[in-house]
Design a protein that fits this description.
The protein has an eight-stranded mixed beta barrel with strand order 24-25-27-28-29-30-31-32, surrounded by five helices. Strands 1, 2, 3, 4, 5 and 6 form a six-stranded antiparallel beta sheet that branches. It is 42% helix and 26% strand. It starts with a strand and ends with a helix. It folds into five domains: 109 residues, Beta-Lactamase, CATH 3.30.450.20; 111 residues, Beta-Lactamase; 106 residues, Beta-Lactamase (2-Layer Sandwich); 160 residues, Alpha-Beta Plaits (2-Layer Sandwich); 247 residues, EAL domain (TIM Barrel, Alpha-Beta Barrel). By secondary structure, the protein is α+β, with helices and mostly antiparallel strands. Strand 7 and strand 8 form a beta hairpin. The protein binds ligand LFPHGCPZ. Ligand LFPHGCPZ binds next to strand 25, helix 22 and strand 29. It catalyses: 3',3'-c-di-GMP + H2O = 5'-phosphoguanylyl(3'->5')guanosine + H(+). GO terms for molecular function: cyclic-guanylate-specific phosphodiesterase activity. InterPro entries: Biofilm_reg_signaling, EAL_dom, EAL_sf, GGDEF_dom, Nucleotide_cyclase, PAS, PAS-assoc_C, PAS-like_dom_sf. This is Diguanylate cyclase/phosphodiesterase (GGDEF & EAL domains) with PAS/PAC sensor(S).
C-alpha cells in the first residue's frame, strides 16, 4: 500500500504496527469521534475504486456487513460518482483543493438507493499524488434528495482531514475553535478563527497561542494552558489579539486533547465584547445607583424575601445610630433588634416589620419616633424582579424631625400666645366649652378673669418692651400659682383667664382666686426696675352663673370690673346684679365719650382754709359731669371708667387747662392770688411729657407756677416713684406745688417722701371722720401732722364737716382744713363769692 500522509498531521506520530493508511484512517475516525460526530458513515477507497476501509456507520447505512463491502468496487456502493474524474481533479490541485462536496446516490438496499450529501477528500502518497479518497456521508440520517453540487470552500486547506459534518459544526460555532498540538502549535481551527483573527490559513498553521495574546496577558494565558495540561481544562478571560493589532475581549476554554500519546488541547473562544459592554454599562449603572443610594438623604435598606440585607446605605446607620459592627452584621435580625430598641415603641415596630415581610404586596407608610426625639417617615414597598416576581422589600426612612418640629411650632403658635407662651383666646374658649360639655353632675367649673392693675399706665409710661416683660413675668407667676392641669391663658392685652375644672364647690374657686390675688401682689423686678404689680380677679361658676363658654367669660369679666370698683387688688364673684352693672358701665363710657366731645364737663372749686387765719388759702378743682338723661354723675362713678378706658388723659388735660385758666381769670379780675389744686391720675403722670404739658399750660394760660398745685395719691407715687420724682423735681423747680392726697390710705413706706419737695400732706377724710370717736384714728392724725411738720410740710385735713373736728385739728397743730363744714365744691362764681365772704369773716373764726 502506498504510504500516505495527511499534510496537517505530518508531525503526529503513527501508532506502532499500523499502516500509514490505517493510521490515517484511524486518526480520522478518532478525530471524528473527538469532534463529536461519531456515527458518521465513512469509507476509504483506493485509486482503482476498491473499498479499503468502511466504518460501522457505513455498514448500517448500506445494510451490508463489513465483508460485503471490503474490496468491493466503489461503484457497487455509489452509483453516480465518476471517481476517476475526481482523482484527476485532485491530481491537478495537489495541495489545497483536495476535497469534493456534493450529493451522491448510495445503494442502500437490493432495489433501493438514497441520495446523500457527501464530502470526498484525498489521501496522498509521498509524492503528493492522491492515492486514496475518503468519502464521508454527511446526512446519513436521511433527508436530502436534491443533488446540489457544491464547490469545496470550507476547510479547503492542508490538514483538513475530518468530515464535513464536523466542519459544519465547528464552523457553525459562534466563536473561534482551535486545536493546539503538544508543541502548542495551532493545527486546526474553524472559519471564524480566520475571519476574526484576520490571518490566512497559512499564517495560522503552526501558530502559537502567544500570537493571539497581548504582551501583558501572555503570562496569564500560558498559566491557564499549563492548567489545562495539568488538570484537564481551564478557562481564561483575555484579549484576542488580531492581526491588525486590535484586541477583542474573549473567554477562552481549553480541554486537554490526547491522541496516540500526544497531548495538546482544543477549545473555543467567545467574544466578550457585548458581555463586557453590558458589564461596563452594568458597572456604571451600579456605581450610579450606589452613588444615588449613598447620597440619598434617606436611610435606605433593601432586603430579599428572607429579610437578608441586599442594599443598605450609610445614612440608615446614621439615622438609627447603629454601630458599625451591627450594621456590618449580615444577620439582619440583629440590626432589627437594635433598631427596635431605639424606638419609643419597640414591640409595635418589630410587629410591623414582620407583618410587612409576611404580606409581600403591601405598601406601607408610617411614622416612627425614636427615643432621642427623632421622627422618621418609613415607607416600605415590595421589590419585584424583571418578571414581576416578588424579590424582597425596600425600606426608606426619611428624617422628618425638623418638619414635625416646625408643624408643632405652627400648631403651638396657632394655639398659644406668642409673647407669654400661654394658651391663646381660641384655645381657652375651646377648653371652656369642652369642660362644660364633659362636666360631671354636681361638679363645678370656675373661670377666673384677671386684669392687671394699672398695666396700661406701666405700658404707656415705660414703653411696650417693658410692658411685654411685665406680661411675661405675670404669666410665669400665674402658672406657679395654679396646678398643671389648670389652664392659664392670655385673653387680651393685660387680661388673663384661668380655667379650673372639676371642683367640688364654688368655695374651692374662692380659695384659688384669693391665692392668685395675693400671689400677684408685690414688687416685680423687670430690667432692673421695680414695679409694684397687682391684679384684680372676677370669677364665674358653671353651672351656677352661666351655661355656655361665652356667658362664663362675660360674667367673670363683669365680676372683675366690680372688683376693680371695689378698689382693685381683690377678687369678686359674679352675681346677677353684677351683670346689670357691667351693662351700665358700658353705657357710662359711651356717654362720657360724648360728654367730653360736647364740652359737658365742668369744674367745681372747694376752698382750703387756714386754721390760723380762717382765710381761704387755696382751692381744689374737682370735675363735674351733667348728663342730659342721667343728670349729675359723681366722679367716683365715672373717673374709674375714664381711667379704664383711657379717657382720663383727655379729661385730665381739660381739667388742668380749665383750672389754670380760671385761676388766671381770678387774678385778672383783681381777686387776691389763689392757688388752685388739680388731681392727677396715674396715667397722666406717666405720660412721657407730663411736666412739659403742665409747663406749657401755665405758659399758655399765663398762670404763675406757684398758683398751681398738683395733688398726687400715695398709691400713684408708689406705682412709679422714680418717674414721679423726676416729673415733680422738674415741676417743683419751676415753682409748681405738690401735695400728697389721701395721705394714710396708700403706700406703707414713707421713705418716698424724702425724694419729693412736698408742700402739703392731705390727711384722708376717713381718719378725720372717726378721729373724735376713735382714739386710734386720732393718733394717726396726730402722727401725720407731726410727720408732716418734721419734714417741713404743711398739713391739711380733708373732709372736715364739723366745728368740733375743726377745733380738735387746730389744737393738735393742723395747718389747714377742707370740707363741707366750710363749703362743698362750688362753681367758680360761687367760689368767688365765698372768697370775699370768707376774707371778711376770717378774723371772727379763730
Ligand atoms: N383725676 C381726677 N380725679 C378727680 C377729679 N375730680 C374729682 N376727682 C376725684 O374723684 C373722687 C371724687 O371726687 P368728688 O366727688 O369731687 O369728691 C370730692 C369732694 O367732693 C369730697 N369731699 C370734700 N369734702 C368733703 C366732706 O367734708 N365730706 C365728704 N364726704 N366728702 C368731701 O372729696 C372729694 C375730694 O377728694 P380728694 O380728691 O381726695 O381731695 C375723688 O377721689 C377725687 O379726687 C379730677 O378732675 N381728676
Amino acid at each position: 500500500m502506498t504510504s500516505i500522509r495527511a499534510s496537517s498531521e505530518a508531525t503526529e506520530a503513527t501508532p506502532p504496527g499500523a499502516s500509514p493508511l490505517e493510521a490515517a484512517a484511524s486518526r480520522l475516525m478518532d478525530l471524528v469521534t473527538a469532534t463529536l460526530v461519531d456515527g458518521i458513515p465513512v469509507l476509504v477507497c483506493d485509486r482503482a475504486g476498491r473499498i479499503v476501509l468502511a466504518n460501522d456507520a457505513l455498514h448500517t447505512v448500506l445494510n451490508r456487513s463489513k465483508n460485503e463491502l471490503l474490496n468491493q468496487s466503489y461503484s457497487d456502493v455509489c452509483i453516480d460518482l465518476a471517481l476517476d474524474e475526481l482523482f484527476e481533479d485532485m491530481e491537478k490541485s495537489p495541495a489545497v483543493t483536495s476535497r469534493w462536496s456534493g450529493y451522491i446516490t448510495l445503494k442502500t438496499g437490493e432495489r433501493e438507493t438514497q441520495m446523500m450529501s457527501a464530502t470526498i477528500s484525498a489521501l496522498r502518497d509521498a509524492t503528493g499524488s492522491p492515492s486514496h479518497c475518503v468519502v464521508v456521508i454527511n446526512d446519513a440520517s436521511g433527508g436530502g434528495i436534491r443533488r446540489i453540487p457544491t464547490k469545496g470552500t470550507a476547510l479547503q486547506r492542508p490538514g483538513n482531514y475530518d468530515g464535513d459534518y464536523a466542519e459544519a459544526i465547528l464552523n457553525s460555532l459562534p466563536g473561534v475553535f482551535y486545536h493546539f498540538d503538544d508543541n502548542f502549535k495551532l493545527v486546526r481551527w474553524n472559519q471564524n478563527f480566520e475571519k476574526i483573527s484576520g490571518y490566512t490559513a497559512n499564517e495560522l498553521l503552526g501558530a502559537e497561542p502567544k500570537m493571539f495574546c497581548v504582551e501583558e496577558q501572555r503570562e496569564l494565558v500560558y498559566s491557564r494552558i499549563r492548567e489545562v495540561m495539568e488538570i484537564g481544562e481551564s478557562t481564561v478571560e483575555s484579549d484576542f489579539l488580531r492581526k491588525d493589532g486590535k484586541r477583542i475581549p474573549y473567554l477562552f476554554t481549553g480541554t486537554r486533547f490526547e491522541r496516540h500519546g500526544r497531548v495538546g488541547f482544543v477549545g473555543v473562544g467567545n467574544d466578550l465584547s457585548t458581555r463586557k459592554r453590558i458589564e461596563e454599562a452594568l458597572r456604571v449603572e451600579t456605581a450610579r445607583f450606589e452613588a444615588q443610594v449613598e447620597s440619598s438623604v434617606d436611610g435606605i435598606l433593601v432586603v430579599d424575601e428572607n429579610f437578608v440585607k441586599v442594599i443598605q446605605n450609610q445614612r440608615l446607620a446614621e439615622q438609627w445610630k447603629i454601630p458599625h459592627h451591627i450594621a456590618a452584621n449580615p444577620d439582619n435580625a440583629v440590626q432589627l433588634e437594635y433598631a427596635a430598641s431605639n424606638t419609643t415603641r419597640p414591640d409595635e415596630f418589630i410587629a410591623k416589620v414582620h407583618w410587612l415581610m409576611a404580606h409581600p404586596n403591601e405598601v406601607s407608610s408610617d411614622e416612627i419616633e425614636l427615643r432621642d426625639g427623632t421622627v422618621l417617615d418609613r415607607y416600605s414597598a415590595p421589590v419585584l424582579d424583571r418578571e414581576g416576581n416578588y424579590y424582597g422589600r425596600t425600606w426608606i426612612h426619611r428624617d422628618i424631625t425638623a418638619r414635625k418640629q416646625s408643624e408643632q411650632r405652627i400648631r403651638h403658635l396657632a394655639s398659644h400666645d406668642g409673647l407669654t407662651g400661654l394658651c391663646n383666646r381660641n384655645v381657652v374658649q375651646e377648653r371652656i366649652a369642652n369642660a362644660i360639655d364633659t362636666a360631671q353632675p354636681g361638679r363645678r367649673i370656675a373661670l377666673l378673669y384677671l386684669d392687671l392693675d394699672r398695666f396700661k399706665i406701666i405700658n404707656d409710661g415705660y414703653g411696650h418692651p417693658f410692658g411685654d416683660e411685665v406680661l411675661k413675668a405675670t404669666a410665669k407667676r400665674l402658672q406657679s400659682l395654679v396646678l398643671p392641669q389648670d389652664t392659664v391663658a392670655r385673653y387680651g392685652g393685660d387680661e388673663f383667664l384661668i380655667l379650673l375644672t372639676d371642683l367640688d364647690s364654688a368655695a374651692d374657686a374662692h380659695g384659688i382666686a384669693k391665692r392668685i390675688v395675693a400671689g400677684l401682689d408685690g414688687p416685680l423686678i423687670v430690667n432692673q426696675r421695680s414695679v409694684h404689680l397687682s391684679g384684680t380677679v372676677g370669677a364665674s361658676i358653671f353651672p351656677d352663673d352661666a351655661e355656655t363658654a361665652d356667658e362664663l367669660i362675660g360674667n367673670a369679666d363683669a365680676a372683675m370690673y366690680r372688683a376693680k370698683e371695689l378698689g382693685r387688688n381683690t377678687f369678686q364673684f359674679y352675681s346677677r346684679e353684677l351683670g346689670e352693672e357691667a351693662m351700665r358701665r358700658v353705657d357710662l363710657e359711651t356717654r362720657l365719650r360724648v360728654a367730653i366731645q360736647n364740652g359737658r364737663l365742668s369744674l367745681a372749686y372747694q376752698p382750703k382754709v387756714s386754721l390760723k387765719s380762717g382765710a381761704i388759702v387755696g382751692c381744689e378743682a374737682l370735675v363735674r359731669w351733667h348728663d342730659p338723661e342721667l343728670g349729675h354723675i359723681a366722679p367716683d362713678r365715672f373717673i374709674p371708667v375714664a381711667e379704664e378706658s383711657g379717657l382720663i388723659i383727655s379729661i385730665g388735660d381739660w381739667v388742668l387747662r380749665a383750672a389754670c385758666a380760671q385761676a388766671r381769670a381770678w387774678l385778672d379780675k383783681g381777686l387776691r392770688p389763689i392757688c388752685v389744686a388739680v388731681n392727677v391720675s396715674a396715667r397722666q403722670l406717666l405720660q412721657q411729657d407730663f411736666a412739659v404739658v403742665v409747663l406749657r399750660c401755665l405758659a399758655e394760660t399765663g398762670l404763675p407756677p406757684e398758683l398751681l398745685e398738683i395733688e398726687l395719691t400715695e398709691t400713684l407715687i408708689a406705682s412709679d416713684t422714680e418717674r414721679a420724682a423726676e416729673t415733680f423735681g422738674c415741676l417743683s423747680a419751676s415753682g409748681v406745688k405738690l401735695s400728697i392726697d389721701d395721705f394714710g390710705t396708700g403706700y406703707s413706706s414713707l421713705s418716698y417722701l424724702q425724694n419729693f419737695r412736698v408742700d402739703t400732706l392731705k390727711i384722708d377724710k376717713s381718719f378725720i371722720a372717726k378721729m373724735l370717736s376713735d382714739s386710734g384714728n386720732a393718733a394717726i392724725v396726730r402722727a401725720a401732722i407731726s410727720l408732716g411738720h418734721n419734714l417741713q410740710f404743711k398739713v391739711l385735713a380733708e373732709g372736715v364737716e364739723t366745728l368740733e373736728q375743726c377745733r380738735f385739728l387746730a389744737e393738735i397743730g393742723c395747718d389747714e382744713v377742707q370740707g363741707y363744714f366750710f363749703s362743698k365744691p362750688v362753681p367758680s362764681t360761687e367760689f368767688e363769692a365765698l372768697l370775699s365772704m370768707r376774707d371778711a369773716q376770717a378774723q371772727q373764726l379763730v
